[in-house]
Amino acid sequence: MVTHPYDQQLQSNNNNNNNNGRRHSSHNEITLQQTMGNSTICVFLDLCGAYNSVNISKLTHKLTEIGTPPYIALWIGSFFINKHYFDGIHSAVGNRGLDQGSTISPLLFNIYTSHIGGLLGECKMSGFADDFSIRAHGRDMVLEASKLQRELDHLTFQFEEIDLQINPNKSKFMVFLPNRSRPSVIPILHIGQERIQLVESHKYLGLTFDKDGNWNKHIENVVNASSQDVTAMKFLKGSNWGNNPKTQLILYKAVCRPKMEYASTIYLWKNDPALKKLQVIQNKALRHALGAVRTTPVNSLHAASAVLPIRHRVDEISLKTTNKYCSTSPTISAQYHEMSCLPSRGRQEKIKQEIQFEGREQYDIIS
What is the pLDDT of residues 177-188, one digit of tens each? Predict the structure, then answer.
């Protein structure tokens, strides 16, 4: 009863407030446009103190508008009003904003901003919580930049209506070109009087996009973070002291491996070099956990630890993701079953037809 009006409201607007779906959609859309020979200008918006700037009165009114039971809307409003903060020495009372780190804050922020971007014209917008991106596609960079600028001016006004402001210093934009070509012109975009910086890579929803679309920057970040975690595991266990091997394996699965698996269905897709790099890190982690030596066969490490190799683990996650979208999206389910009934050659022709059709319409299918 509580979630029904939320789901109805969030599904009715252009923002697909699903973290994994947004990453897939943005990546697939950019890849499709590159395949068709089009360029993509993507602006990543940053909000000033997003959660702290939420107007609780307007949030309560928004909840009532979408059909939330009045007593629940009033309870949420009273929960975030007259909040008392105490750090042991100082105390303060707050009547504005959502709590950072609260499990309900992202959902409430999604509802609070669900109408943003609903009237966009030829540009497309996506977002989850306080992360937003707006994109324009085409062959004429000057024309697409002018479209984006008009929509940015409109979005700035929409955010200001709900007491939110776009931070031009932290907002960035990227240009994705087909076949790694060089741009004929460098587009210029502004938020108010401030110019938005053009960058070659940017982190959006935990995934680092780079202009070449090869995910090298993201892979580098994942390898560095995972290597540091594996190194830290060395200090938790010795030859005759420290954690039990089972505890070390639980630690690896809970802390280290999720960093490699996050968005793995996107950046590890047909990326053998990246898979090999991550497999080396996992091998080191298993050796530390089991107390094995460097000459221990890799197959033995995985058999003794009951941990799947990275490649097989990614395949498992990909199948789970496919099943999830097939069960939640009638469109994707119908396309998947239609192509699964075709022979291999016919399946390739069907995919080409779908790409050509979706290029004229809206492309939002999971690869």
Answer: 887 667 677 888
* Strand partners for 242: 237
Amino acid (one-letter) located at 338: E
Considering the entire predicted model, what is its pTM?
Answer: 0.78
> Could you count the other beta carbons within 10 Å of the beta carbon of residue 6?
19
- As a whole number, the mean pLDDT across the chain is 82
Which H, E and C letters describe 111-136, residue by residue?
HHCCCCCCCCCCCEEEEECCEEEEEE
CA–CA distance, 127 with 134 (Å, rounded to integer)? 9
Fill in the DSSP letter of residue 47: B
Asked if residues 81 and 95 have their Cβ atoms less than 8 Å apart, the reply is yes
CA 257 vs CA 182, 215, 301, 331: distances in Å: 37, 18, 16, 32
What string of DSSP letters covers 188-246?
Answer: --EETTEEPEE-SEEEETTEEEETTSS-HHHHHHHHHHHHHHHHHHHTTB-SSSBS-HH
Q: Are 244 and 233 in contact (CB under 8 A)?
A: no
* 256 closest CA partner among 290, 238, 231, 292: 231
β-partners of residue 184 are none
Please report where in the chains the tokens 């802390």 appear, as a residue: 255
Question: Could you please report the per-residue DSSP string of 279-291?
Answer: HHHHHHHHHHHHT
Q: What is the pLDDT of residue 101?
A: 82
Q: What is the rounded distance in angstroms from the CA atom of residue 286 to the CA atom of residue 51? A: 40
DSSP string, 314-357: HHHHHHHHHHHHHHH-HHHHHHHHHHHTS-HHHHHHHHHHHHHH
Three-point CA angle 215, 216, 217, nearest 5°: 90
